[in-house]
Design a protein that fits this description.
Helix content: under 10%
Strand content: 35-45%
Largest sheet: 5 strands, antiparallel
CATH topology: OB fold (Dihydrolipoamide Acetyltransferase, E2P)
Oligomer: single chain
CATH class: Mainly Beta
Distance between the termini: 29 Å
Structural class: mainly beta
Number of helices: 1
Order of helices and strands: HEEEEEEEEE
Length: about 120
């Protein structure tokens, strides 16, 4: 498998603007009229977010990720996707490189809302 070339470098100041946190996926529901999208309800400790992700075609059973911790970007501008407002982005490894995707997860349980950095 050929992995994509590295993207151009960015400053540490730009990277520090991205708020990456651990959250627990508490529930999900299908997005009406969408073949790929599900709306995840994610617990970040002091707040919850709805994150829309294209998991239906990647995973035979998207429900298997309920209760799992994963990494999310929580400071993206909200974006309406098929009528559902997504308030962040799930980190999913492998999809863009054409391999079976895997969640980016902490190596052991940590408190919801912990920042990556």
């Amino acid at each position: 498998m050929d992995v994509a070339a590295a993207k151009p470098t960015i400053s540490i100041d730009l990277l520090n603007q991205v708020d990456i946190r651990v959250g627990t996926i508490e529930a999900f529901e299908d997005v009406p009229g969408a073949e790929k999208l599900v709306a995840l309800r994610v617990n970040f400790g002091t707040f919850h977010r709805v994150i829309v992700a294209g998991l239906k075609q990647e995973r035979p059973n998207p429900k298997e990720i309920e209760g799992r911790q994963a990494l999310f970007v929580v400071n993206l501008e909200p974006r309406r996707m098929r009528g559902v407002v997504s308030e962040g982005m799930l980190f999913d490894i492998g999809y863009v490189d054409g391999i079976a995707p895997a969640l980016a997860v902490p190596e052991r349980p940590v408190p919801n809302g912990c920042r990556a950095g």
